[in-house]
TrEMBL record:
Protein name, as recorded: UDP-glucose 6-dehydrogenase
Sorted UniProt keywords: NAD, Oxidoreductase
Organism field: Macleaya cordata (Five-seeded plume-poppy)
Protein EC: 1.1.1.22
UDP-glucose/GDP-mannose dehydrogenase C-terminal domain boundaries: 328-452
Length: 480
């Protein structure tokens, strides 16, 4: 029986391995992690991450051919194929701080593999890593190989959170990069055979190592660039009376452009877009390509501009101050159908409002108070380190309350900011909400999910990103 071990039981390692186990009953899959609580959660009824369909997949295979364990050494030693899916955060100090990928966790996983292996291994990069990481890993593994042969493959993951299980069941493509030697090609075929259990062969792309590593960074940069492009247009729409939804629709109808990923928003979030673009920028700089670096940096700059612009709209509409005012924040996760808050735009928006001394009342159906307090008090980039390395008891931000109901959050509020596009926010009883708010009552829709005209009929003053402005807002400055 082929044995797979995956190091890192996170958003990628957990769901990916669960799907491999489901689709390949003849393969034993063990997911290992240094985090004891995370592994305990994977072995319990309360999985550590919320992802539609995941629980069903885990329940079907856990205990049969899918296992979660903290015995990292044993399972690495036993495995034929080792996936490494540990975090690759942005460096917070030293050379390349604020841009380069921190490969500490990757390196320690590689050293562990080198220490405990007693048989030949295929080592698969699942984490998103800088181009040429495979070369560094190879050096660690082969430096003291004791006659063991290692083949390194790059097999980046393209799943998106909230749709991870669907994405894994029906991927647009699976990408496998390897050395162009006979041994490298054999390793590619071995991994291809795993995916071929459910992925059509023409969707499995095989390349050299560096193309696979770079394609992952490029794909995320292209996706984020689309959002920054449409968000840049949203500012111009507000200035001219155009409607960004109509512009996106018209532009996306061109089959060369395509309609997906053109929704204007308060800004993109998530654990990877910013991190991977910063990483790309750093690689360009290191390779003497400052013009290319500047080009991609702009995608992040527009994203920051969009979040600032939103906060400024809120403050300037409300008589240029939110000091002491209650602002309800609906949605804190970085997108709907996930409890993940990594780099969510809600953090920057809430910090902006708190900076102007607002009282903020937050409701998100999937995010806990502890997580929100942690996010609002943590230093930039600290979030992407294993939980046991993060501050244990974050300082509580006193002007923030977290409630479990949208009606409670909006009661007596002066304004509402919709920051995540949860479906339930589309169908709230906005008349009831309006009746219980201070007047004038404001709605700032950062996801364009409410019908501004209907809300205006109720009496709200409404701001929707990139839509023709409410008369109230027309003469107010958009950007400070
Ligand atoms: P995560 O933080 O959820 O999980 C990483 C896990 O690795 C943690 O549980 C941590 O405890 C564990 N870990 C760290 N060092 C370890 C070690 N030496 N031994 C054992 N376990 C160790 O991260 P994630 O979101 O799953 O992302 C993992 C990688 O995949 C990143 O490189 C990321 O860029 C990439 N990626 C993420 C997504 C996504 O949607 N989250 C999608 C595609 C790619
Ligand atoms: C993204 C990519 O879509 C995945 O392919 C990739 O594997 C993953 O990053 C990764 O490398 O981590 P994810 O961050 O989970 O996946 O979610 P997305 O659906 O891409 O959304 C990212 C952010 O962009 C969210 O905040 C979302 O609300 C925002 N977004 C998305 C928009 O503002 N407008 C859009 O049209 C689409």
């Amino acid at each position: 029986m082929v044995k797979i071990c995956c190091i890192g039981a996170g958003y990628v390692g957990g769901p990916t391995m669960a799907v491999i186990a489901l689709k390949c009953p003849h393969i034993e899959v063990v997911v290992v992690d240094i985090s004891v609580p995370r592994i305990a959660a994977w072995n319990s009824d309360q999985l550590p991450i919320y992802e539609p369909g995941l629980e069903d997949v885990v329940k079907q295979c856990r205990g049969k051919n899918l296992f979660f364990s903290t015995d990292v050494e044993k399972h690495i030693a036993d495995a034929d194929i080792i996936f490494v899916s540990v975090n690759t955060p942005t460096k917070t100090r030293g050379l390349g701080a604020g841009k380069a990928a921190d490969l500490t966790y990757w390196e320690s996983a590689a050293r562990m593999i080198a220490d405990v292996s007693k048989s030949n291994k295929i080592v698969v990069e699942k984490s998103t890593v800088p181009v040429k990481t495979a070369e560094a890993i190879e050096k660690i593994l082969t430096h003291n190989s004791k006659g063991i042969e290692y083949q390194i493959l790059s097999n980046p993951e393209f799943l998106a959170e909230g749709t991870a299980i669907d994405d894994l069941f029906k991927p647009d493509r699976v990408l496998i990069g390897g050395r162009e030697t006979p041994e490298g090609q054999k390793a590619i075929q071995a991994l291809k055979a795993v995916y071929a259990n459910w992925v059509p062969e023409d969707r499995i792309i095989c390349t050299n190592l560096w193309s696979a590593e770079l394609s992952k960074l490029a794909a995320n940069a292209f996706l984020a660039q689309r959002i920054s492009s449409v968000n840049a247009m949203s500012a111009l729409c507000e200035a001219t009376g155009a409607d960004v939804a109509e512009v996106s629709h018209a532009v996306g109808k061109d089959s060369r452009i395509g309609s997906k990923f053109l929704n204007s928003s308060v800004g993109f979030g998530g654990s990877c877009f910013q991190k991977d673009i910063l990483n790309l920028v750093y690689i360009c700089e290191c390779n003497g390509l400052p013009e290319v670096a500047t080009y991609w940096k702009q995608v992040i700059k527009i994203n920051d501009y969009q979040k600032n612009r939103f906060v400024n709209r809120v403050v300037s509409s409300m008589f240029n101050t939110v000091s002491g005012k209650k602002i309800a924040v609906l949605g804190f996760a970085f997108k709907k159908d996930t409890g993940d808050t990594r780099e969510t735009p809600a953090i920057d928006v809430c910090k902006g409002l708190l900076g102007d001394k607002a009282r903020v009342s937050i409701y998100d159906p999937q995010v806990t108070e502890d997580q929100i307090q942690r996010d609002l008090s943590m230093n930039k980039f600290d979030w992407d380190h294993p939980i046991h390395l993060q501050p244990m008891s974050p300082t509580t931000v006193k002007q923030v309350s977290v409630v479990w109901d949208a009606y409670e959050a909006t009661k007596d509020a002066h304004g509402i900011c919709i920051l995540t596009e949860w479906d339930e926010f589309k169908n709230l009883d906005y008349q009831r909400i309006y009746d219980n708010m201070q007047k004038p009552a404001f709605v700032f829709d950062g996801r364009n999910i409410v019908n501004p005209e209907k809300l205006r009929e109720i009496g709200f003053i409404v701001y929707s990103i990139g839509k023709p402005l409410d008369a109230w807002l027309r003469d107010m400055p958009a950007v400070a």
